[in-house]
Amino acid sequence: MDVSVPVSEAAADLPALTAPAGRPFGVYIHVPFCATRCGYCDFNTYTAAELGDSSPDGWLAALRTELELAAAHLGEVPEVSTVFVGGGTPSLLGAAGLAGVLDAVRARFQLAADAEVTTEANPESTSPEFFAALRTAGYTRVSLGMQSTAAHVLKALDRMHSPGRAVDAAREARRAGFDHVNLDLIYGTPGERDDDLRGSLDAVLAAGVDHVSAYALIVEEGTALARRVRRGELPAPDDDVLARRYELIDRHLGGAGFAWYEVSNWSRPGGECRHNMGYWNGGQWWGAGPGAHGYVAATRWWNVKHPATYAAVLAGRRLPVADFENLSEGTAHVEDVMLRVRMRAGLPLAALSAAERTRAAIAIDDGLLRADGGAVVLTDRGRLLADAVVRSLLD
Ligand SMILES: C[S@@+](CC[C@H](N)C(=O)[O-])C[C@H]1O[C@@H](n2cnc3c(N)ncnc32)[C@H](O)[C@@H]1O
Ligand code: SF4
């Protein structure tokens, strides 16, 4: 058991920030707790055994201080259009804990009347009462990690819930009054067959949700999954299989009234996640919690990762910023292209340099992009090769 605190995580001084008006402003809160660690996951999250004394209560107290210091740092505090509580496993806090998180945001930031307020949740730590209390607290959207309905796939992913629990949880959330519910799927897990994925998609549709995120399994370095693949116990996901599965997902969801609005995200009309759209569309946000990233004006920063370091820095009433960078115009442009080309709305030609427009024309000839009004949009084949399209545009 490792309960040591990394001493190398020193706090840096964040420069003064003024949030430009007219761009959506979000708040992201990172909850760094999980009951167990899934073998594929490299997110900044910790089990109780790894944390020792760093309890969720201590984290919430530190979070309140961070939000107080954040509002003071911003000076003129912009109205918040979206809040996203992610993890880790936010549902481990329970409905009362999550209500406390939203209260902490409201204590320092003014939420827009129509603010989107999302929390992620793991199916096994939810119930009808949990969703009802979240709704009362002011949450408007729930994102559930379903991954698959095939028992052998869930086992390969080390997921703790039973195959049917995510769908039941989504229905409970809908019954509690949530119009906006997302289910996350992972495809390409070793041992998954096309029929397993079809079964998961049928279950998603039966659950009556308005949003689906589907991610190709990434074998992240340093995870248990990477070690198993390296030892030859599991095959690495195969690119051709991943492409076929992506097409299957798109067809299945498309036939049921969902449309893609970002390469890995599909929704019914009006079900798009506004918070994530902010990340992809040049919005700005304050990221609070251990390891959270923020982006305001041209400054990006990231917090210290370990919850104990986070709490210790905040106990000294300093922002828990590990480091920051001021993005040059060139870097901001590269990131803009990388993110916006993945969206259904596409990349406005006006945002591209002359050389990039020439390269976009070549990608159109190659059938990877198509012109749509004043923008270029990925074709179906282009979506399968989105990273290569980005590289070819930026050269
Ligand atoms: C980091 S989790 C946080 C929410 C929650 N704890 C859960 O597991 O659903 C958010 C989503 O990221 C996706 N994810 C995490 N690691 C991944 C990986 N290595 N490859 C593909 N998707 C991954 C999963 O679909 C997961 O639902
Ligand atoms: S996938 Fe979700 S539940 Fe699993 S370890 Fe990562 S954050 Fe925790």
Q: What can you see in these coordinates?
A:
With 395 residues, the chain is α/β, with parallel strands linked by helices. Helices cover 39% and strands 21% of the residues. The chain contains 15 helices and 15 strands. A hairpin with a 2-residue loop joins strand 7 and strand 8 (265-267). It is globular. One of its GO terms (biological process) is porphyrin-containing compound biosynthetic process. Probably acts as a heme chaperone, transferring heme to an unknown acceptor. Binds one molecule of heme per monomer, possibly covalently. Binds 1 [4Fe-4S] cluster. The cluster is coordinated with 3 cysteines and an exchangeable S-adenosyl-L-methionine. GO terms for molecular function: 4 iron, 4 sulfur cluster binding; coproporphyrinogen oxidase activity; metal ion binding. Belongs to the anaerobic coproporphyrinogen-III oxidase family. HemW subfamily.
Protein traits:
395 residues, alpha/beta, TIM Barrel, Arc Repressor Mutant, subunit A, 2 domains, 9-stranded mixed β-sheet, 3-stranded antiparallel β-sheet, 15 helices, 15 strands, 21% strand, globular, binds S-adenosylmethionine, binds iron/sulfur cluster, heme, chaperone, coproporphyrinogen oxidase activity, iron
The total tally of domains equals 2
Oligomer: single chain
**Unique ligands:** S-adenosylmethionine, iron/sulfur cluster
Biggest beta-sheet profile: 9 strands, mixed
Question: How would you name the CATH homologous superfamily of the largest domain?
Answer: Aldolase class I
Alpha-beta classification:
alpha/beta
Q: Just give the CATH class of the largest domain.
A: Alpha Beta
CATH-scheme architecture of the largest domain = Alpha-Beta Barrel
- The pLDDT mean sits at 94
Uncertain segments: 1-5
Shape: globular
Strand content: 15-25%
As a whole number of angstroms, the C-alpha radius of gyration is 21 Å
Main location: cytoplasm
Domain Radical SAM core: 19-259
Subcellular location: Cytoplasm
Protein name: Heme chaperone HemW
